[in-house]
């Protein structure tokens, strides 16, 4: 159960042997029915992924502030997991719609397993911070202190800061017959306060919310002066102290409840169901329906209660009762709660405690035509297709500049683009607006249902509409997740189409931290494909055929399975056969079963999976030819690559789709076929580096657990694949 599997690897082997022994028709082993229990559980596999994030925080070889950053990532990941996955599971159980998972675990078993594993991991998470990272930060002059650790002089100066900067924005809420228990917003930090009236002796409960606009920590410089962390300069960081704001509020509750006796106060935090359910029968009203649902989401039921250690039984029971949270969903943790706030500490200007700075370079085939004038993207793309690898190669000097140049070029007649997640101040959004203002035809296909970016997407979708951009919201019932841009340009009396197909979002901010791939091309077939796909998304074209694209929900699963089966046929015919896959998540049972059959037929399947992985690897008779690795590092591994030997003529696709039901059945996704031999070689080299035993990674074992490989037999650190790529990319720059 801890590994998220319902059946042990030994039991799987026994089932496979029994099936083979009972076969009387001479059926080959790889054609036998596959055993039950061959899938790992999706939810528990996700917790295993977040454990790998935690192991990054535990790795003493990493820079100290980066370790603190991984603690913040772990906390943020877990918040989203409870808001969406746990909340959805609870909702399905409550409505009687929950069914046994593909792993064979019942909904209740999954929920119980989540509770056990999440509590183990959160305790470990807190311990790493308290016992390891916080003391080491203190050794570097960054002291994360409790109120009691401050000197009297510092406490006095913070009290003045409290009265001036914090007290005016606090709102105490009493609970009595005239004041019902207040609504506690999701992920907010709160103080539960027990008070006693000095005259009547009656006890009262009150809640004080920590306003989210206040900084998570208050900085106290070496002179004892308190200030907001963003106001403290690098010269004042030496021997700076940081105090959780809730502790400062807790020590000054007498300002909020004058005349009352403060009996006790405790920090707590609630996680709510924040997944969206929007009826899409009427696509015209989707925007307004989503806006209404965003309001409703703020009042979703509580799915997790976090409280600080030391809370009294009475106060805990009151919170559980009023919030409708069980003991199973209650997490008692050391203070401070909500370690997402360590992002603030990570942002301090202390480069010696962070990864060495890396400046992205311009992609080789774009830099080749650099001169005193800006790169002519259209000439560069006409010369060759351009493979981009972010963030090693700059997003701003490639994709962003391509679209900016297209917006300003008088020969460009139209720009069409999908936008799944971006930022409101994005130069790409500005470029689309500039193009519309210049009279070009501009279509933006905005996915306003991108989880947790809904409000931002609505805001800038309206901004685009006001500028005259044609904004559409995709197909009813499907999220548009593909990453596509199409530029139509008039050249020598005819039209030429320039295209970008990528694996990552058109977001300049995340492009600096997400590892992604993309192709810039003016290939006629790709131009036709994107034209047809955009027409399908903005109009009516349900039976579109494509040349170089595989498009979900119609083609990606079937297309990949066809290629897996071709590798099986080639292997059985004695031809070269292998499969190499890099993606974020693998859950789709049909695709996994095809990979199992390939393994049984002797095809070597090598995979790099960052997150959820429902495959049972290395099980004799089932998947002994499947090897799965996972890589985490300073950049979020986000690219998807699907590569097949194809009897010596490698067949490779990159694109937006993971092997999950939502990607293959409920989203518009696109994979593009790679044709340039240099690009094929580069992608295969990337896969080889990621899969090498000399590369630091986690290996998926037969029992469903992940084992970290960070050192060789002599105790020497293994290769950091991301550092290798940085060095290689800089090397290409130096040889030009």
β-sheet strand percentage = 15-25%
- Tell me the number of structural domains: 3
Distance between the termini: 54 Å
Please tell me what the overall shape is. globular
- Number of DSSP E strands: 28
CATH class of the largest domain: Alpha Beta
Largest sheet: 10 strands, mixed
- How many individual helices? 21
CATH superfamily of the largest domain: Polyphosphate kinase middle domain
Instruction: Extract low-pLDDT stretches.
Output: 277-284
Helix content: 25-40%
CATH architectural category of the largest domain: 2-Layer Sandwich
Brief overview, please?
The protein has 736 residues and is of the alpha/beta class. It contains 21 helices and 28 strands.
Write the layout of secondary structure elements.
Blueprint: H1 9-22, H2 42-58, H3 64-95, H4 107-139, E1 142-144, H5 152-166, E2 172-175, E3 189-196, E4 203-209, E5 217-220, E6 226-227, E7 240-244, H6 245-250, H7 253-256, E8 261-272, H8 286-297, E9 302-308, H9 313-323, E10 330-333, H10 342-346, H11 364-367, H12 377-383, E11 386-390, H13 396-408, E12 412-419, H14 427-437, E13 441-446, H15 454-466, E14 470-472, E15 479-480, E16 483-491, E17 494-502, E18 514-521, H16 524-538, E19 549-552, H17 556-572, E20 578-583, H18 589-600, E21 604-609, E22 626-630, E23 636-637, E24 641-644, E25 651-655, H19 661-665, E26 667-674, H20 677-691, E27 697-700, E28 706-709, H21 721-734
Parallel strand pairs: 1-7, 9-10, 12-13, 13-14, 15-26, 18-23, 20-21, 21-22
Antiparallel strand pairs: 2-4, 3-4, 3-8, 5-6, 5-7, 8-9, 11-18, 12-16, 16-17, 17-18, 19-26, 20-24, 22-27, 24-25, 25-26, 27-28
Helix pairs in contact: 2-3, 2-4, 3-4, 13-14, 17-18
